[in-house]
Specification:
Number of helices: 9
Strand order of the largest sheet: 2-3-1-4-5
Structural class: alpha/beta
CATH topology: Rossmann fold
CATH architecture: 3-Layer(aba) Sandwich
Shape: globular
Largest sheet: 5 strands, parallel
Radius of gyration: 16 Å
Number of domains: 1
Order of helices and strands: EHEHHHEHEHHHEH
Strand content: 5-15%
CATH superfamily: P-loop containing nucleotide triphosphate hydrolases
Distance between the termini: 6 Å
CATH class: Alpha Beta
Number of strands: 5
């Protein structure tokens, strides 16, 4: 299986769909959110810095994320493909990821873009905040995260388009239908 970059706004289902893809295809999964939350939980210096930035709705500096990502990637079993969940978020990160993979004689693979309307995203994130008790998911911070996404991350979709690896999937009210569409596409890559 090729590497997969799962891409979308906060709350679009990147983690949910990544988990389903991992279960079906047996791929490795790198979630930058989970990786950062582990750093925060363990109280590392990186974790303290990450918490401060996340609580403000800001992105982690590229050089820090790329270092964490490369270390995580190198520890995974090779040959299964990797889902990158929550990374890259900027063109600079995408170029750095492409370079990091090329140094290992690997390719980026495909980008799966999850398109979900903002009202649905807000409802999901507020519900997740209540269920999981996530302090980084409150209405004010979510709005800041949407602004950061629209200004810094969303333009990356055009970069993936130029690379010829962008594939979009639009939410139509059903997780099962979205997943069926993604699986149908991924089955063509085998």
């Amino acid at each position: 299986m090729k590497n997969i970059i799962i891409f979308g706004a906060p709350g679009s289902g990147k983690g949910t769909y990544s988990d389903a893809i991992v279960e079906r295809y047996g791929m490795n999964h790198i979630s930058t959110g989970d990786t950062l939350r582990n750093e925060i939980k363990n109280g590392t210096e990186v974790g303290k810095l990450a918490k401060e930035l996340i609580d403000k709705g800001q992105l982690i500096p590229d050089e820090l994320m790329i270092k964490i990502l490369a270390n995580t990637y190198d520890r995974l079993p090779q040959g299964l493909g990797v889902i990158f969940d929550g990374f890259p978020r900027t063109i600079a990160q995408a170029e750095a990821l492409k370079q990091m993979l090329a140094e290992r004689h690997h390719e980026m693979g495909v980008m799966i873009e999850l398109i979900v309307d903002e009202e649905t995203l807000m409802e999901r994130l507020l519900r997740r905040a209540q269920i999981e008790g996530r302090a980084d998911d409150n209405a004010e911070t979510i709005k800041k995260r949407f602004e950061v996404y629209h200004n810094q991350t969303e333009p990356l979709a055009a970069w993936f388009e130029k690379e010829g690896i962008r594939h979009t999937f639009t939410w139509e009210g059903s997780k099962d239908q979205m997943l069926a569409n993604i699986f149908a596409f991924l089955d063509t890559l085998k």
